[in-house]
């Protein structure tokens, strides 16, 4: 079927739907719903058999939904309506939620239901839920709705449209530090997470707070700043404290847009003298941090979780220190990856944009992540497994490929390319990517710059094993798989062969040669003020609206090479459409 995805942005859910529909043989195109564009003209130009909106902030025009079957993905159960559905659910502490695929009509979220799938809401941030539990339910609902639509025999169900809730504005999100409990504060922070943040007054200025983690040990007067750790600040509540990783200064009238930054660097000289907690806590330390290490028998687990999945120079260096320390332990398998959500998205464009010299910070950041990748590639005394609980992109994919095996949760989306940011890439990709998928496939992945599903990545050879499980079960599944890997008879043989293979590679073409060639091109781009990278980076960090749909998304991708005309009957659309 030819399916047109209409979206406000090509976000993580839209990417997953795009990749998974292509996997199933559908011909998929994308059109961004832009303020200055005519969506009706764009849809007519594509002439799809079905219009699907995975993430749309505006209404589909009447002339579109009256002419074409249009399905909207709503992140709420049947009957729930409004633009802040998931935010309300998290802030109110809901434990179960759902996703509904409904037909577009005049009234937002009020159309007939084609599919609805329930899901749990564990106590994690909104963006994490959106990329995991919500995305899993959304994909299941989309596939079910498409199947029902294709059958031509399904009749959608009317819904009760009386439960409409308003936009969750800052008056409801605001934290009362002298009255709200830690649980309440964390729920408010998680419900606002990456967007829009919680507006607050801190040290005499207005900031949006982004992200929140409960603190188990530290205590103080409500609202007081207690400590810092790995760039985050700890602030006391009435009965405990919370960690806030990122801040965004409130934009003043006439001033340029602001963006999220690590809290400590955002505050700068405003930050009073408070204790700085160690970046790498001892085992059993209960205070929040972004890197942890633990062992189970002969398996070491080095987990990390950075906001947005990007890694700054400092974060790369800290993770490298932790990796080197983990390699001193008497284990035969080392698992590298987070417990859920992002694996890694490469260098930290936000920290780079905020730097006094973005070119110099870009150079420092790419060298720091290259150092980490090189350490993994040169590990010969144990097997290293990259465990992708969530999405990965650009240099983050290449970091994963440096390991001996790549395990990926079934809901992951991989973007193994750089060109959309105007970069040629580093992280030893010219060595690891062709080694994994072959030169032709590597060239195609980088040139097409399209998202790849976990199953698609496995078929290409990017991923060795796809773990089909719920997000909350991934850590335990990986633990069982790693323990089994230790017990396999061939594991010792594989470890013994690693040094010989590395020596052979060094004699043919040393790893340093790949790095030098990649970095020479990256250095040229970073230090060329006219290079597109700088404008693309600024637009990405400041969340500037796209002016048109990128050509690589507007082109039809996927589908079968030969297909008979597809027809659906009156039960689905009220008419017959070729």
From TrEMBL:
<dbReference type="InterPro" id="IPR005793">
    <property type="entry name" value="Formyl_trans_C"/>
</dbReference>
<dbReference type="InterPro" id="IPR011034">
    <property type="entry name" value="Formyl_transferase-like_C_sf"/>
</dbReference>
<feature type="region of interest" description="Disordered">
    <location>
        <begin position="550"/>
        <end position="578"/>
    </location>
</feature>
<dbReference type="InterPro" id="IPR036477">
    <property type="entry name" value="Formyl_transf_N_sf"/>
</dbReference>
<dbReference type="Pfam" id="PF02911">
    <property type="entry name" value="Formyl_trans_C"/>
</dbReference>
<feature type="domain" description="Formyl transferase C-terminal">
    <location>
        <begin position="170"/>
        <end position="250"/>
    </location>
</feature>
<dbReference type="Pfam" id="PF00378">
    <property type="entry name" value="ECH_1"/>
</dbReference>
<dbReference type="InterPro" id="IPR047180">
    <property type="entry name" value="HoxX-like"/>
</dbReference>
<dbReference type="InterPro" id="IPR002376">
    <property type="entry name" value="Formyl_transf_N"/>
</dbReference>
<dbReference type="InterPro" id="IPR029045">
    <property type="entry name" value="ClpP/crotonase-like_dom_sf"/>
</dbReference>
<dbReference type="Pfam" id="PF00551">
    <property type="entry name" value="Formyl_trans_N"/>
</dbReference>
<protein>
    <submittedName>
        <fullName>Hydrogenase maturation protein</fullName>
    </submittedName>
</protein>
<dbReference type="InterPro" id="IPR009188">
    <property type="entry name" value="NiFe-hyd_mat_HypX/HoxX"/>
</dbReference>
<dbReference type="InterPro" id="IPR001753">
    <property type="entry name" value="Enoyl-CoA_hydra/iso"/>
</dbReference>
<feature type="domain" description="Formyl transferase N-terminal">
    <location>
        <begin position="37"/>
        <end position="141"/>
    </location>
</feature>
């Amino acid at each position: 079927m030819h399916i047109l995805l209409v979206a406000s942005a090509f976000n993580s859910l839209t990417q997953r739907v795009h990749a998974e529909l292509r996997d199933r043989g559908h011909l998929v195109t994308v059109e961004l719903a832009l303020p200055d564009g005519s969506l009706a003209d764009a849809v007519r130009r594509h002439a799809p058999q079905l219009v699907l909106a995975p993430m749309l902030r505006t209404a589909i025009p009447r002339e579109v939904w009256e002419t074409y079957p249009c399905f909207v993905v709503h992140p709420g159960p049947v009957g729930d309506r409004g633009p802040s559905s998931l935010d309300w659910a998290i802030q109110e502490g809901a434990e179960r939620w759902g996703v509904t695929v409904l037909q577009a009509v005049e009234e937002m979220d009020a159309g007939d239901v084609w599919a609805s799938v329930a899901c749990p809401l564990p106590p994690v941030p909104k963006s994490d839920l959106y990329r995991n539990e919500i995305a899993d339910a959304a994909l299941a609902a989309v596939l079910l709705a498409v199947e029902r639509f294709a059958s031509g025999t399904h009749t959608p169900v009317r819904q009760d449209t009386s439960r409409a809730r308003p936009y969750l504005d800052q008056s409801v999100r605001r934290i009362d530090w002298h009255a709200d409990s830690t649980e309440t504060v964390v729920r408010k922070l998680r419900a606002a997470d990456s967007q829009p943040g919680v507006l607050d007054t801190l040290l005499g200025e207005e900031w949006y707070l982004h992200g929140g983690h409960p603190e188990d040990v530290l205590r103080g007067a409500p609202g007081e700043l207690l400590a810092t750790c790995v760039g985050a600040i700890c602030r006391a509540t009435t009965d405990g404290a919370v960690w806030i990783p990122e801040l965004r200064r409130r934009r003043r009238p006439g001033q340029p847009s602001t963006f999220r930054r690590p809290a400590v660097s955002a505050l700068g000289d405003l930050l009073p003298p408070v204790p700085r907690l160690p970046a790498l806590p001892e085992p059993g330390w209960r205070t929040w941090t972004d890197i942890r290490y633990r062992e189970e028998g002969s398996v070491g687990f080095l987990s990390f979780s950075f906001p947005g999945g990007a890694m700054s120079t400092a974060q790369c260096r800290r993770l490298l220190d932790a990796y080197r320390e983990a390699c001193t332990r008497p284990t035969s398998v080392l698992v590298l990856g987070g417990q859920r959500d992002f694996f890694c998205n490469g260098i930290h464009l936000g920290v780079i944009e905020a730097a006094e010299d973005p070119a110099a910070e870009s150079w420092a950041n790419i060298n720091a992540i290259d150092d980490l990748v090189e350490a993994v590639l040169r590990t010969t005394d144990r097997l290293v497994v990259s465990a992708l609980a969530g999405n990965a992109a650009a240099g983050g994919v290449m970091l994963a490929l440096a390991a001996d095996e790549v395990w990926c949760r079934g809901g992951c989306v991989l973007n193994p390319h750089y060109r959309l940011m105007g970069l040629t890439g580093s992280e030893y990709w010219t060595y690891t990517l062709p080694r994994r998928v072959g030169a032709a496939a590597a060239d195609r992945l980088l040139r097409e710059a399209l998202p790849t599903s976990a199953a698609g990545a496995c078929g290409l050879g990017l991923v060795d094993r796809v773990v089909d499980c719920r997000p909350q079960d991934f850590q335990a599944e990986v633990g069982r798989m790693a323990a089994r890997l230790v017990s396999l008879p061939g594991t010792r043989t594989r470890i013994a062969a690693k040094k010989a293979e590395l020596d052979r590679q060094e004699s043919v073409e040393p790893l340093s040669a790949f790095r030098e060639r990649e970095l020479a091109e990256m250095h040229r781009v970073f230090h060329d003020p006219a290079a597109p990278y700088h404008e693309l980076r600024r637009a990405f960090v400041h969340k500037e609206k796209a002016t048109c749909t990128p050509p690589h998304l507007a082109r039809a991708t996927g589908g079968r090479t030969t297909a008979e005309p597809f027809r659906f009957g009156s039960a689905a659309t009220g008419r017959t459409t070729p």
